[in-house]
Amino acid sequence: MDLKGRHLIAPSDFSVAEMEWLFDKAEQIIKNPKDYTEVCKGQLLATLFYEASTRTRLSFEAAMLRLGGQVIGFSEPTSSSASKGESIADTIRTVACYADIAVMRHPKEGAAMVAARQSEIPVINAGDGGHHHPTQTLTDLLTIKLEKGEFKGITVGVCGDLKFGRTVHSLISALSRYSGVKFIAISPSELRLPEFAWEEIARSDATLEETTDMREALPKLDVLYMTRVQRERFFNEEDYIRLKDRYILNAAKLKDAKKDLMILHPLPRVNEISTDVDTDPRAFYFRQAKCGMYVRMALLMSLLGRGIAHGNQ
Ligand code: NCD
């Protein structure tokens, strides 16, 4: 499989076979991390973060450093020339003069796509507004795969802010390409999935059921994907306050859930998962964060066209 030089802007940029290949690579890295410590020696990653991040930026940085590569970048727009009015196109053209690959997070939908069109180096979308977040999806899928072995026929509940939650949009886009996946969308009516997600499901073999009642959905689920209400995407604070605590998962509610349920959350959490769930063996969200680093290692080395052999040269 040759992913060298490719961009990753939305999950549909990769075929199922290409995603599977990345999961296999990530599993190899988990088993033999020492084999990969020099794979990206001499390679430079630029992290262009115009929006807050903990896991995504740090896991990309950790991934590149663990592959023997190096990292430059900024973690807030105020420290870049965006604050002087520079366009994304000009920024990426400049960054491509210095780095071999770039990761971008931006509050505007489509920002990473604009960058990719102008870029001579691979661009990875680390979140564009309320649109997509494909590397979070690679993380989510690897976490499920390591536990369940496959995605075929699973029932996945997505809960919370399905309107603005980009991780849910990307998860649905990727998972609906596997056979017989069933989604249950749990949200207040104001935060329903956007049209483009419905259309993607309609084109696939997946099914989607909607409810506003988490307790009713819970016993049916193999995976429960919780999300934070995306405060920064709301036009008005009152709506956010009214909706933010609509769904709170706690240990008591989990009594009705399957014994092998996986509870996922891209993090950060606010109130939507009570801390009394953290010690439940079904809570996977911190293990999920770890998977993010491994799958990003697999992604970086693949887009850079590097394999174990490079490290031995
Ligand atoms: C998510 C994001 O940025 O979309 N965080 C992440 O990357 N792990 C989810 C969120 O911020 O709610």
Uncertain runs are none
Strand order of the largest sheet: 7-6-5-8-9
| CATH H-level superfamily title of the largest domain | Aspartate/ornithine carbamoyltransferase
Count of the separate structural domains: 2
Average pLDDT figure: 96
- Can you summarize the main beta sheet? 5 strands, parallel
Strand content: 5-15%
CATH-scheme architecture of the largest domain: 3-Layer(aba) Sandwich
The end-to-end span amounts to 21 Å
Bound molecules: N-carbamoyl-L-aspartate
Q: Give the H and E element order.
A: HEHEHEHEHEHEHEHEHEHH
Q: What quaternary form is this?
A: single chain
Q: In total, how many beta strands? A: 9
Shape: globular
CATH topology of the largest domain: Rossmann fold
Helix content: 25-40%
The radius of gyration is 19 Å
CATH top level class name of the largest domain? Alpha Beta
Return the structural class.
alpha/beta
Q: How many individual helices?
A: 11
Topology summary:
Layout: H1 16-31, E1 44-49, H2 55-66, E2 70-74, H3 88-98, E3 101-106, H4 111-118, E4 123-128, H5 134-148, E5 155-159, H6 166-175, E6 182-186, H7 195-202, E7 207-211, H8 214-217, E8 223-226, H9 237-243, E9 262-264, H10 285-303, H11 308-312
Helix pairs in contact: 1-5, 1-10, 2-10, 3-4, 5-6, 5-10
This protein binds N-carbamoyl-L-aspartate.
N-carbamoyl-L-aspartate binds at residues 55-56, 127, 133, 136, 166-167, 228, 266-268.
Task: Give a brief outline of the structure.
By secondary structure, the chain is α/β, with parallel strands linked by helices.
Describe the structure.
- It is a single chain.
- This protein has 313 residues and is of the alpha/beta class.
- The chain folds into two domains: 11-133 and 292-310, Rossmann fold, CATH 3.40.50.1370; 134-289, Rossmann fold.
- It is built from eleven helices and nine strands.
- The strands form two sheets. It has a five-stranded parallel beta sheet.
- Strand 1 (44-49), helix 2 (55-66) and strand 2 (70-74) form a beta-alpha-beta unit.
- Helix 1 (16-31) crosses helix 5, helix 2 (55-66) packs across helix 10 and helix 3 (88-98) crosses helix 4 (111-118).
- The chain is globular.
- The protein starts with 15 loop residues before the first helix and ends with a helix.
- N-carbamoyl-L-aspartate (NCD) is lined by residues 55-56, 127, 133, 136, 166-167, 228, 266-268.
- N-carbamoyl-L-aspartate binds next to helix 2 and helix 6.
